[in-house]
């Protein structure tokens, strides 16, 4: 098999969406290796198992939380690597200067989209605060450091949690349902945005509008970073920049209020 750079002529989005670099999505058409449908099903179940560690692993502080945050991506990646062998790296590409710029662009785009959609949803349905930064400052510098390290790992896990099912759905639609490449991409993009939003329901007090509309819209932007670059590291970078900006603002505000 080859490296997976095998575009389907006439089945690519324009340059505004996809780079004109010939790079294509892996696995959906058997390149660089074939991953059977049942294997994708197991990979998705592994994503669910990883997510379950975040929900149910007992952790009293940020340092203890490092364990479930590491398991979150580690569990599905272990299964994914087991099924794809040496071709597991096809979702990862070496970062370039353009990639770092792309991270910043999608970070800023995500902030703008999330803010605009969030204001509308908050006005109509109300909104609940993300409790991620609660009590972090009370643990001192070690807790703050563990928080940033842990959330960085967790945000990478959220990309794994989204991109692997995205590729699975694309494979099933293209190979089994015989849909076109681009239609498969669009459907997988929309379905995984809802998948990601549903995972955030507990975080936002089961506010469905906030989880599916606000978080779902943010997920569309982040997945678009992967669609453009075919590199999970780029969508991860944009995600980390976005959430760390929000977390830092919240921590600074909390510190100012406590002083």
From TrEMBL:
GO terms for molecular function: metallopeptidase activity. The chain crosses the membrane at residues 40-60, 66-88, 100-125, 145-173, 185-202, 208-227, 239-258. Residues 153-244 form the CAAX prenyl protease 2/Lysostaphin resistance protein A-like domain. The keyword Transmembrane helix applies. The keyword DNA repair does not apply. Keywords: Hydrolase, Membrane, Metalloprotease, Protease, Transmembrane, Transmembrane helix. This is CPBP family intramembrane metalloprotease. It comes from Arthrobacter pullicola.
């Amino acid at each position: 098999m080859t490296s997976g750079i095998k575009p389907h002529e006439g089945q690519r989005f324009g340059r505004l969406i996809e780079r004109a670099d010939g790079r294509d999505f892996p696995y959906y058409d058997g390149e660089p290796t074939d991953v059977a449908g049942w294997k994708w099903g197991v990979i998705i179940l592994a994503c669910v198992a990883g997510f379950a560690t975040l929900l149910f692993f007992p952790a009293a502080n940020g340092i203890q939380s490092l364990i479930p945050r590491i398991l979150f991506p580690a569990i599905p990646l272990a299964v994914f690597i087991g099924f794809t062998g040496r071709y597991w790296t096809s979702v990862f590409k070496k970062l370039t200067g353009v990639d770092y710029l792309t991270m910043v662009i999608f970070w800023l785009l995500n902030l703008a989209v999330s803010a605009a959609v969030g204001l509308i949803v908050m006005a109509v349905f109300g909104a609940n605060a993300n409790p991620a930064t609660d009590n972090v400052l009370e643990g001192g510098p070690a807790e703050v450091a563990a928080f940033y390290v842990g959330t960085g790992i967790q945000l990478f896990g959220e990309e794994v949690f989204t991109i692997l099912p995205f590729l699975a759905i694309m494979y099933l639609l293209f190979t089994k349902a015989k849909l076109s490449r681009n239609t498969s991409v669009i459907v997988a993009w929309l379905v995984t945005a809802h998948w990601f939003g549903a995972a955030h329901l507990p975080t936002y007090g089961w506010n469905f509008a906030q989880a599916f509309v606000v978080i779902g819209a943010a997920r569309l932007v982040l997945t678009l970073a992967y669609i453009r670059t075919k590199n999970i590291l780029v969508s991860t970078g944009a995600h980390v920049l976005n959430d760390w900006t929000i977390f830092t603002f919240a921590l600074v505000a909390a510190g100012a209020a406590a002083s």
